[in-house]
Specification:
Blueprint (H helix, E strand, L loop, with lengths): L2 E6 L4 H12 L6 E7 L8 E7 L2 H7 L8 E7 L14 E2 L5 E6 L5 H10 L12 H9 L4 H9 L6 E7 L6 E6 L4 E4 L4 E4 L11 E4 L5 E5 L2 E5 L5 E2 L4 E2 L15 H7 L1 H9 L3 E2 L4 E2 L8 H5 L3 E6 L1 H16 L5 E5 H4 L10 E7 L5 H12 L4 E5 L5 H5 L2 E4 L12 H20 L4 H12 L1 H8 L3 H11 L4 E6 L4 H15 L2 E6 L17 E4 L6 H13 L4 E6 L3 H6 L2 E5 L7 H19 L18
Parallel strand pairs: 18-19, 18-20, 20-21, 21-22, 23-24, 23-25, 25-26, 26-27
Antiparallel strand pairs: 1-4, 1-10, 2-3, 2-4, 5-6, 6-7, 7-8, 8-12, 9-10, 9-11, 11-15, 12-13, 13-14, 16-17
Helix pairs in contact: 4-5, 7-13, 7-15, 9-13, 9-17, 13-14, 15-20, 16-20, 17-20
The structure holds 5-amino-5-deoxy-1-O-phosphono-D-mannitol.
Length: 611
């Protein structure tokens, strides 16, 4: 949550900050602000502009004369204190010379505030973050790095911080503990941000910071100190993102663009990883030798939200196809469950951003207990990717819309690859492996064909989007897809939706059925088809409208339901890839029809870096 950026260099600083914030806006969009110094501004003073709402509101609020040679900016997802201009960052000390932007939560802020008030500090905001500039001021004796170094010793909680002092032009000091922070290095200019997207327009050279580190920046230098205040020599990483990949192109929203990118993003996740000849998968980053892989007796998967749904699909697949017991756990639950780590277990953390606090902290907890954890991440160099013992990058490309779509199907691809590899090491024959690999290879094409249902889904969404409640139902490997369909609908359209196992319906949810509550069914053509059709009949018998996503040519289902969305016929184990697509489109068109902000739905943020 929250995006921070710092910049020092020859460009118009306010523009660089605004542009960076615009790209970080998916991390939070309650309010925003910048602090700049130097240039035409009076020397020894910072200019601060804040506004409630999106970056466009901040842009409009910045007077033309606010510029400088260095500065910091913030886009907020409120945790402590309401959404007001005063609570927007940057925050300052009482002299107004120290300005700080913060992402994270300072857990001991009440005690610190009391202590600082006793020393005469006057607080203006309701935020936890405001203690930081006041603390820095207590230690400031002409050297910002030394003051920040001392101040962070007092902080408990999580933080990614960027600080500037009016009397030290061009200098930015950053500190990281639990919230991401990345340095961008340009020619005679320097960036500090929560995410690469903020600086990809200016530089492709980045340096990742680790927890407990401080960084001292000038336009021409970066210097990193570790927890023990020792200087760290860390080489730069070259990033390969292109600016076009974080632009909307011809699409009205990032979400639609990302839904339509799925044939290519899944193909990228699979690229070079299917060994047809040997009917297996090649996953170079696992860092596990053959005997360790062969001796995996149980797979445990940690994740949140959509990534958890991908993990659930993975758990069904691993049990059914690779015959390895597997369980997907909610990160926010398992962290506090005192989890048992069995010797032969292999753990996965699934995360698009690689920064989700619940997932990261749960992963660290099981690592402390001796677990080997593999990451399934999209963002290269993210904290989960770096701290896991190995893993699979899904290569979806930047996912900007808050509602995750293409990352989900790429996470599925990672699980299908790992399942193929594991199954082939165990009971799966070469012939069977080749069939599985060929089906996997054909997924991008099948998803491209499914995308042709766009206009049909739009018409169905128009018809049903005024309903106040929806049920999404599926069985077996399609049960997680029902959960994901419901999550997509609620997060962007604000319609209440419940995902439910179709078999579980009669144990309670069926009480909700009425002509006003549509049900969305996922109907495979496998051994569960007949049972699912019986569940549809039970709903129809009670007057509930039914929309079904089913297999092309399934006229029995088509004739039974009120609206039918066909996907191409395929190996039933692969329907999760195809059947999620109409559900993504359905949520998207319902939200559009209702006039929602599809890419930045209320109350949400893309990367949830607080617990
Ligand atoms: O970055 P992560 O995959 O770890 O994020 C996990 C969830 O916060 C995320 O999937 C969330 O549920 C999305 N908004 C779903 O669309």
């Amino acid at each position: 949550m929250c995006g921070i950026i710092g910049y020092a260099g020859p460009r118009k600083t306010s523009n660089v900050l605004l542009e960076g914030l615009r790209r970080l806006e998916y991390r939070g969009y309650d309010s925003a602000g910048i602090a700049v110094g130097g240039g035409a501004n009076p020397s020894g003073q910072l200019r601060i502009v804040k506004s409630v709402g999106k970056i466009s509101a901040l842009k409009a609020a910045i007077p033309p004369d606010v510029d400088g040679v260095w500065g910091i900016g913030h886009t907020r997802w409120a945790t402590h204190g309401g959404v007001t201009q005063t609570n927007a960052h940057p925050h300052t000390d009482n002299s107004g010379k120290i300005a700080v932007v913060h992402n994270g939560i300072i857990e001991n802020h009440v005690a610190l505030k009391t202590m600082l008030q006793k020393k005469g500090c006057v607080f203006k905001t309701e935020t936890d973050s405001e203690v930081i500039p006041h603390l820095i001021a207590q230690y400031y004796k002409g050297d910002l790095l030394e003051a920040v170094k001392a101040a962070v010793q007092n902080l408990e909680g999580t933080y990614g911080i960027a600080c500037i002092h009016a009397d030290e032009p061009g200098r930015i000091v950053g500190a990281r503990n639990g919230s991401p922070l990345i340095v961008g290095v340009g020619a005679g200019e320097i960036f500090l941000a929560s995410d690469i997207t903020a600086m990809v327009a200016y530089t492709d050279k980045v340096v990742y910071l680790n927890d407990g580190e401080l960084v001292d920046l000038t336009p021409d230098s970066y210097s990193i100190l570790d927890r023990d205040e020792q200087k760290v020599e860390r080489p730069m990483n070259q990033i390969t993102w292109e600016l076009g990949s974080i632009e909307k192109g011809d699409f009205p929203c990032y979400m639609e663009k990302e839904i339509f990118e799925q044939p290519e993003s899944i193909a990228r996740a699979l690229s070079g990883r299917i060994d047809m000849e040997n009917a297996t998968a090649k996953l170079g980053g696992l860092n596990l030798d053959r005997s360790r892989l062969l001796n995996v007796g149980r797979v445990k998967i940690i994740a949140a939200g959509t990534s958890w749904h991908a993990g659930l699909v993975g758990s069904y697949l691993l049990e059914q196809v690779a015959r390895i017991p597997a369980q997907a756990e909610l990160a926010s639950e398992i962290r506090y469950k005192n989890p048992v780590v069995e010797k032969d277990s292999l753990w996965f953390t699934v995360s698009q951003s690689g920064e989700t606090a619940d997932s990261l902290f749960a992963m660290r907890e099981v690592q402390r207990k001796g677990a080997t954890v593999l990451g399934i991440c999209n963002v290269v160099g993210s904290t989960i990717a770096r701290e896991s013992d190995g893993g699979i990058y899904v290569h979806s490309g930047p996912e900007i819309a808050v509602a995750s779509t293409k990352a989900f199907t790429s996470q599925l691809a990672a699980f299908y690859l790992f399942t193929l590899l594991s199954a082939r090491m165990r009971h799966m024959s070469r012939e069977e492996g080749q069939r599985f690999a060929a089906s996997l290879q054909s997924v991008p094409d099948l998803v491209a064909q499914t995308l042709k249902t766009r206009d049909l889904v739009q018409r169905i969404a128009k018809k049903y989007c005024r309903a106040a409640n929806f049920l999404f139902l599926g069985r077996g490997i399609l049960y997680p897809i029902a959960l994901e369909g419901a999550l997509k609908l609620k997060e962007i359209s604000y319609i209440h939706a419940e995902g439910c196992s179709a078999g579980e319906m009669k144990h309670g949810p069926i009480a909700l059925i009425s002509p006003e509550v549509p049900s969305v069914f996922l109907v495979s053509d496998d051994y569960l088809r007949e049972k699912t059709i019986s569940n549809i009949r039970e709903i129809k018998a009670r007057g509930g409208p039914v929309i079904a996503v089913g297999v092309y040519g399934d006229s029995e289902t088509e004739n039974l339901v009120d609206a039918f969305i066909p996907v191409p016929k395929m190996d039933p184990r692969f329907y999760p890839f195809a059947m999620i697509v109409p559900l993504q489109l359905f949520a998207y068109f319902c939200a559009l029809e209702l006039g929602r902000d599809v890419d930045q739905p209320r109350n949400l943020a893309k990367s949830v870096t607080v617990e």
